[in-house]
Write a structure and sequence with these properties.
By secondary structure, the chain is α+β, with helices and mostly antiparallel strands. The protein folds into 2 domains: 24-110, no CATH class; 121-288, no CATH class. The protein is built from 10 helices and 10 strands. It has helices spanning 12-20, 26-38, 44-53, 63-70, 107-110, 121-133, 186-201, 221-238, 245-250, 264-277, and strands at 60-61, 73-74, 81-84, 90-95, 99-100, 136-141, 149-153, 160-165, 168-173, 176-181. The strands form 4 sheets. Strands 1-4-3 form a 3-stranded antiparallel β-sheet. Strands 6-10-7 form a 3-stranded mixed β-sheet. A two-stranded antiparallel ribbon has the order 2-5. The longest helix is centred in the last third of the chain and has 18 residues, at 221-238.
């Protein structure tokens, strides 16, 4: 089944993926994922832009950052790489090989992959807090070893959770429940939440009249699962959480060594949204606030 969209407004990323075939090959796609997890100081979408322009990049930064942090200057004639700037149009950055300087580089630039471990407690708390802000109730239940968890529409009428807002607490509608196996390790619980949250933010369950959520209900299960697990992998790797996502994703490889026809732009943007949920409190959608609540 095809994704709901206006055919006259196909994004450049979708055209690159669907028409040109870039990243449709499994090896090319996994190479992109490895690149994205290396540059955890840039958004996943900006990582895509960097990879398109210079796939072998080890580290990129603005001229000011190179000079201030590493005492390095930009080589004459070096070509800048273009990325999107938060709250602005674009920003120009330069790759390590386009800089020069005598000072030794820090180990985390030469070897950028983070140490494997657990999600820090603050990020864990923010994730759970932000689930509420998106109208999601988190529940743990005793399941068998073959069931990690799932997300489902909340069928209980008038359900809400109290969420802090401007130093007060306001009621926020519950539109979904994420149910996770209580027997899982903390790391597995987090990756399960990431996977199910990705389903919601990608619009696999519909938009539920939320402006920020696309209505992409009706995609094939292969596409939905590949998108959700790719997002879980990106976030897990960039935050140093153990995951078996690559093994999971390899099960969806086509006979021609291709991956499903996912929406790569949606995957990267949702990955960025979830990353923000692990770093700070996100804005509560106006549609979920209960306006006429009486204490």
């Amino acid at each position: 089944m095809t994704e709901n969209r206006n055919s006259d407004k196909i994004s450049a990323v979708k055209e690159l993926f669907d028409e040109v075939g870039k990243y449709r090959n499994t090896d090319d796609f996994y190479e992109l994922l490895e690149f994205i997890k290396r540059f955890h100081n840039y958004s996943p979408f900006n990582c895509l832009l960097l990879h398109i322009q210079k796939p072998g990049s080890l580290y990129v930064a603005t001229p000011t950052y190179w000079r201030r942090e590493f005492n390095r200057s930009i080589k004459p004639g070096a070509r800048p790489l273009v990325i999107l700037k938060p709250f602005g149009p674009v920003e120009f950055v330069f790759e390590l090989n386009d800089t020069e300087g005598k000072d030794p580089l820090p180990e985390d630039i030469i070897n950028p992959f983070r140490t494997r471990g657990r999600l820090n407690s603050l990020s864990f708390e923010l994730l759970h807090e932000n689930l509420k802000r998106y109208g999601i109730r988190y529940v743990e239940a005793e399941h068998g070893s073959c069931s990690a968890g799932y997300i489902q529409e909340n069928k209980t009428p008038n359900s809400f959770q109290m969420v802090e807002f401007k130093k007060e607490y306001i009621p926020v509608k519950v539109i979904h429940n994420i149910v996770v196996n209580s027997h899982l390790s903390e790391e597995s619980k987090v990756t399960t939440i990431l996977h199910e949250l990705a389903h919601f933010l990608c619009g696999h369950l519909g938009s539920f009249d939320l402006k920020k959520i696309p209505n992409r209900k009706g995609l094939s299960q292969n596409v939905e699962e590949f998108e959700a697990e790719t997002i879980a992998y990106i976030i897990s790797e960039r935050f140093g959480i153990e995951t078996d996502s690559i093994k999971y994703l390899s099960g969806y490889r086509g006979i021609d060594n291709s991956i499903p026809y996912i929406n790569l732009e949606c995957v990267l943007k949702v990955s960025g949204t979830i990353e923000e949920m692990l770093k700070q409190r996100v804005k509560i959608p106006e549609e979920l606030k209960i306006k006429d609540y009486k204490r």
